[in-house]
Amino acid sequence: MTRINPSSAPTPTLGQVSLIALFVTALVTAQLTAAKILQFTLPFSLPITGNALILPGAAVAYALTYFATDCYSELYGRRAAQYIVNVGFVMNVVLLALVWTTITAPAARSSIDPAMFENVLAASTNIVAASLIAYIVSQNTDVYLFHAIRDQTSGKHLWLRNIGSTAVSQAIDTVIFVVVGFWLAPQFLQSGVVLPAAVLAQLLVGQYILKVGVAILDTPFVYGTIALLERHDQRPAADTSTPQR
Question: Which residues of 80-107 are buried (b: 16+ CB within 10 A; e: fewer)?
Answer without folding.
Answer: bbbebbeebbeebeeebeebeeeeeeee
